[in-house]
Amino acid sequence: MAPKITIRDIALSKRRVAFTHPFRFGAVTVEGADEVIVHVEIDVDGLGPGRGAAAELMVPKWFDKNPALSPADTVAELQVSLDLAVKLYREQRAADTAFGLHAACYRPLMNACAEQRIPPLAAAFGAAEIDKAILDALLRAMKLDVFTGLGRNVMGLDARLAPDIDAASITRFLSSRTPQQSVFVRHTVGLVDSMASLSEAARAQGLRYFKIKLGGDPKSDRERLIAIVETLDAITSDYRITLDANEQYPDEVALNALVDVLLNDEALESANQRLAYIEQPLPRESTFAKPLGDVGKQFAFIIDEADGDYDAFHRAVALGYRGVSTKSCKGLYKSLLNGARAADWSAQGFRAFVAAEDLTCQAGLAVQQDTALAAFHGIVHCERNGHHYGNGFSAAHPCEAEAFLAMHPDLYEKCGGGIRLRVANGAIEIGSLSKAPGFASAVDPALVNLQRSSDNKPLKEMAS
């Protein structure tokens, strides 16, 4: 039975993460971003207090690609979501399950953000981050690791926000998971990444999976795909790719042209054979306007930016899509409910799946919690691009970095004068994520971001 909890405190802090080289996706190039850190204190019925934390990069121009908004404007929307979510969660006086608290705050948060014209994907950000920190605190209070806790449904996940599934489906999905002890890294090839850097990373890390960003023009995307495939073919014959358009194909005409090139261009035969799926080709606004049609029969398509609410995956499958991304920045509960949906549909003969994508999750809490969520699904390969564009723990206090290295030596290594994600033979080892109570972290939450919080109190003092 899921224990009931009450919120004692929520605090936010941020730190700046500078990228080692530019990351271009869609129509924007990002050279750095703020990482938000959420600390919570809760009381757990029958167990007493619990403390937890979560972290996530506030990436500009992904949650909202409105061309009328500047990158700073879109980050400001995420801050509004966070501030509103903190207020809503603090106002919940009655004890409830972790998911019950989320369910009570979710729709009011979405409505309040809608009044400010903040789109659903950005609106959900605040709750997503607080929910991760609450789960961390709950698991620590219960002395359970993340995989055991999720399997037992200690958060009280139910179908009230997803009425198309039932309680039995949720229980069946959660209790049947066999988490991976390692996951293959799917290396991101950004729109301004060079073939030399791709070749260097692939050889040095033994990479086998690659995620290739598309720009939305079939002709230029064809030329770039040919160059990438030639680069990879020169390194190994054992690799797979996914394609991510980040909403850049304007309509079905352009998308049909891309599919035609992939199917019929001899120069892309290798890409065709190795392609697992195509991610979010159309703008989120037009994703649900009409069925995919014949192109959906040629390749598997998944939604990502269009995954703005609890019903998005269900609606997308009805239109010919096969999958949806899991990203903890979109909400861990939506991810799990989508996993239950995919398991049910697959059992009925329709192959549906959840894919693990990354929005530059940085070393530490962000990458560990997001990877653990993907591993719980049983996903074999995950896009992990935070280590590629960020420089490990370079933005963190040295004490925090050393603590994560000490408690998770399978996941990190000292490299190039710093502490970074350890990728060997194309994979990361994650056995340590389940060796201690908490949401995929054995590090004391008080050590995360040893700077001053938003209310000008040191975090270690706030937690005392």
Question: Summarize this, please?
Answer:
This protein is α/β, with parallel strands linked by helices. It has helices spanning 71-90, 98-115, 120-123, 125-142, 146-151, 167-175, 195-205, 218-233, 252-264, 269-274, 284-287, 295-298, 312-317, 332-347, 365-377, 386-389, 398-407, 459-462, and strands spanning 5-25, 28-44, 48-57, 182-189, 209-213, 240-244, 275-279, 301-303, 323-326, 353-356, 381-383, 412-415, 418-421, 427-429.
Q: What can you see in these coordinates?
A:
With 464 residues, this protein is α/β, with parallel strands linked by helices. The chain has 2 domains: 5-173, Enolase-like, N-terminal domain (Enolase-like, domain 1), CATH 3.30.390.10; 177-447, Enolase-like C-terminal domain (TIM Barrel, Alpha-Beta Barrel). Helices cover 39% and strands 21% of the residues. It is built from 18 helices and 14 strands. The strands form 3 sheets. Strands 4, 5, 6, 7, 8, 9, 10, 11 and 14 form a 9-stranded mixed sheet that branches. Strands 1-2-3 form a 3-stranded antiparallel sheet. Strands 12-13 form a two-stranded antiparallel sheet. Strand 8 (301-303), helix 13 and strand 9 (323-326) form a beta-alpha-beta unit. Helix 1 (71-90) packs across helix 2 (98-115). The longest helix is centred in the first third of the chain and has 20 residues, at 71-90. It is globular and about 65 Å long.
Radius of gyration, in Å, reads 21 Å
The number of helical segments is 18
Structure summary, number of beta strands: 14
End-to-end Cα distance, whole Å, is 30 Å
CATH homologous superfamily annotation of the largest domain: Enolase-like C-terminal domain
Name of the CATH first level of the largest domain: Alpha Beta
Percent helix range: 25-40%
Spans of at least 5 consecutive residues with low confidence = 452-464
How would you characterize the largest beta sheet? 9 strands, mixed
Structural category is: alpha/beta
Binned strand content: 15-25%
CATH architecture of the largest domain: Alpha-Beta Barrel
Mean pLDDT: 95
- Count of distinct structural domains: 2
CATH topology grouping of the largest domain: TIM Barrel
Shape designation: globular
